[in-house]
Amino acid sequence: MTVQDNQHIPTLGEVMRSVTPVLSHTSVQDVVTTFQGDPALLMIPVVVAGVFEGAISRKELFIRHLSRPFAMDLFGKKPISTLISGTTLVLAPECDINYALTRLLEHDPELDTDSFPVIQQGACVGIVHVSELLMAISRSQAHLLATLETLSARIREEVEKARQIQQDLLPPSTCNYAGLVLDAVLINSSEISGDVYDYFFIDQNRLGVMVGDVSGHGVQSGMVATAAKAGLHLLLDGGVATPGKLLGGMNKAVCATASNSLMMTAVIAVIDRTANKVFLANAGHNYPYLYRSSDEAVVMLDGTGGFPLGFDMGSEYHEIAIDFQCGDLLILYSDGIVEARNEEGDEFGYERFSRYARQNSGSSPESFRLGLLDAVRTFSGAECFEDDVTLLVVAAEPVP
Question: Left, alpha or beta for 87 (phi > 0: left; psi -120 to 50: alpha)?
Fold first, then answer.
């Protein structure tokens, strides 16, 4: 985020909390007592002669060290210095909150960290709660939007720029890779979409696809969708390549970004042409459809599901494996299609969707996409959709 209209971007010195450090020889039992006496305390700095030596977090102490049987008997009388980690992220108080978030994601892309110390001249001057850092970033961005609202012309200009950036962040709508033909579309119902789609190349034989839908739409939903996509690519860059683990990492990013105010459904599939399989995990999203050319059947892939992203930081997402042969078709979509209504208030629904899929499964992904959207528009009697609409279709063709 850039500074506009003299907007002040807070520093860590403005968002950190003051915390009384403990000496390195303080017993583990005494530190436990300190944590128990203050439920809001997430981390305690550890010092030697006033110099920062490390920090112990509540999570690390109680979950990593003291959750096992007899752990307190083993560690209770030992100095806390025996349990502190040397891998804690530390930043200076003059760092602005945007830079701090960048460093945090570099240090911990899965956002397991809930707090980190602020150090100045070798001394710990405070502790930053990650949730409060993200709220400060949110308030900073909200302040920018509030400023822009006073100038309607500039609002339209900035929103249009944001819409264009969000569109530019989408990959090309068509793709041919490893004998797979992909076609996708995202249609906004407002300037900023809460829907998102993406695809990514894992290796020369594996293609991953993702469709997501943040609750609601508009600027806030768009921010969450963009954060989720950024989290996805951080995980991919870190070597994560399975649908379940990718959704798990994205869930932590959405939990941290949305602070439980918004949730996001998402489905990720990895198509392996060597194994002729689709590996799929689902976070509360509409079940994909699969056309099987072997028996000309259209099936809903409802064998796995999970909580939406942002519902529970600890959610795990299980995977299923499905055969995906030449001539098969995989269809991912958002609920803007099935929930489109006609003048009588009836929804397009899953039955009409599956009927269209059965009747048009031999089409190319592009023809399938164009025909389905035409069918929804004809049903609703309107050119525009009331909700964001995303559709992603992948067909398997023979590998030369």
Answer: alpha
| Cross-strand partners of 43 | 57
Where are the extended beta strands (E) located within 77-173? 115-120, 123-129
pTM above threshold 0.70: no
pLDDT at 377: 93
- Report strand pairing: 277-283 vs 319-323: antiparallel
Query: H or E segment at 227?
Result: helix 219-237
Whether pLDDT at 109 is above 90:
no
Cα separation, 226 vs 184, in Å, equals 18
What are the distances in angstroms from CA 333 to CA 202, 260, 355?
Answer: 22, 24, 15
Residue matched to tokens 């980690």: 85
* Among 362, 372, 359, 295, residue whose Cα is nearest residue 332: 372
Radius of gyration, CA atoms only, the chain: 25
Amino acid type, 128: V
Mean pLDDT of 254-259: 80
Give me 298's structure tokens: 């259209």
Looking only at the bridges linking them, the beta strands covering 115-120 and 123-129 are antiparallel
DSSP 91: B
Q: Which residues pair with 79 in a beta bridge?
A: 27
What's the pLDDT tens digit per position in 180-229? 999 999 988 766 777 889 999 999 999 999 999 988 666 777 778 888 88
Residue 308 pLDDT exceeds 80 = yes
Rounded Cα gap, residues 45 and 241, in angstroms: 36
- For residue 185, the surrounding DSSP H or E stretch is strand 180-187
Residue 182 to residue 366: CA distance in whole angstroms: 8
Report how far residue 19's alpha carbon sits from residue 41's, in angstroms, rounded to the nearest whole number. Answer: 8
Distance CA 356, CA 350 (A): 10
How far out from the chain centre does Cα 378 lie?
A: 34
Distance in angstroms (rounded) separating the CA atoms of residues 178 and 175? 10
Beta-bridged to residue 196, according to DSSP, are: 212
What's the number of CA atoms in the CB half-sphere (13 Å) around residue 31? Answer: 35
